[in-house]
Prior knowledge:
Helices cover 52% and strands 15% of the residues. By secondary structure, the protein is of the alpha/beta class. The protein folds into three domains: 9-41 and 266-292, no CATH class; 45-255; 299-529, 3-Layer(aba) Sandwich (Rossmann fold). The two termini are 34 Å apart.
Amino acid sequence: MAGDTTVNFSxxxxxxxxxxxxxxxxxxxxxxLGFGLLSTRGTAxxxxxxVEVQPLxxxxxxxxxxxxxxxxxxxxxxxxxxxxxxxxxxxxxxASADLGITDFDDPAVxxxxxxxxxxxxxxxKQRINNNREFVEVTIPNDTEILEFTASxxxxxxxxxxxxxxxHAYLDFRRDNGLSGVNDxxxxxxxxxxxxxSELTQLASDIAAAEAREDEARVQGxxxxxxxxxxxxxxxxxxxxxIDAISVRAGTILDDADLPEAPSGxxxxxxxxxxxxxxxxxxxxxxxxxxxxxxxxxxxxxxxSGMGLNVFGSVPILSKGKxxxxxxxxxVDDAGTEAYRRVQGGLLFDLDNADKSVVxxxxxxxxxxxxxxxxxxxxxxxxxxxxxxxxxADLRDATLHDxxxxxxxxxxxxxLLGEVSLTEAMVELPELPxxxxxxxxxxxxxxxxxxxxAGLGRVVSMAKANFDLVVFEAPPVLTVADAVDLGRFxxxxxxxxxxxxxxxxxxxxxxxxxRRVGTDVLGxxxxxxxxx
Length: 531
């Protein structure tokens, strides 16, 4: 499954079933957080004012005025949410409250609000700045309309906020428009006075030139006089045009109705939505956890998916409960029956391939492989086959303890040439068809023994005299001994303990054995029994 990014439905169900505490905890946490977040927001009312923004100069337009002639709603929105408009709104609210007039368009309210009687302190301005987030200004698509949406803890406060900001925006915009018109008029009046003064001076200069009979000077001054009188006439026309101007900032379409009910989600929606999000997150976490967990969770399907034959599952007694002697499992025990079924499948494959020498090894857990190898050999001997069981873990021998026999001489002694294979064999009276060769003396570095020609001779001799030869080997990934042994065996069986085995361990073990030419016949699942 490494590198497989496809998620099947079965993976979701497996993630939930194996990691349900994580899913439940995530769901509960989501519900609590959802309830808490929605509760802290409190009950909120919303009120909306809608303003149609219009060009400031709507009548008697003059090209000489420095006033915007078209509506840019983006710019207008920036003005509407500005601090200056928010401060004007507060002044309108205070003046309205003092006068007892709720209509912000009332001239008395506007005059009082901006008369200087409601100057705001620095603390007021800071509070207003903090409260600006409670008024949102939006622009409906392809319109020249601003929507002022105000929220507050009470319906009256929400309505007051929406109305005051909308009116304050229009007042601010109207004042700016009038200011622009007045500035333009003042400039024209100033120029008019300059021209009148200049014409008076020209009249005096012309009279003096005529007295001197300076015709050329008189003619030049007359032309200048005519030009200034034409400019004066133009200024008069422009002043008339300005006086005809009507400044209209905009029109209020909806003046903030009083909201009848709180807006937003009901309180119950908090824990429900939070629980749903928590459930989704929990399943996601569980799925990621499952995918990152390399353990063999579904042994049969996962090992089969790796191309490995699964002969079956057999019980392994929990640590500290392993028995001594031949009857690791009683003859009539269910565990013995499980081994009988597994060895039947294994022998069938061996017979079909004309093979009789098999290596039994775990990936990283040697104890399971020792138990499985011993019970497989016992089951085959009880079935009538002549079996040789060889303890090939020369570093940490435990097979003799499992069978209740001595380890005075064994495989290491045979490979060292100190005894023959026959001399190293131990007979078990209860099982006449089974012979055992224990590991022998402990060898800390047995590599040279396992790689030498002596092991090949031992295998050949055993194969010639027995129907089945079972080598109990140390774990494949712990030391190289199992791989060295595998070179001389006709096939290998991997013992997989789902409690500790990982998919990468199994894959690495198979690869190492196959690299030296060992045929991996399949796997046996070791399931821990209670006693």
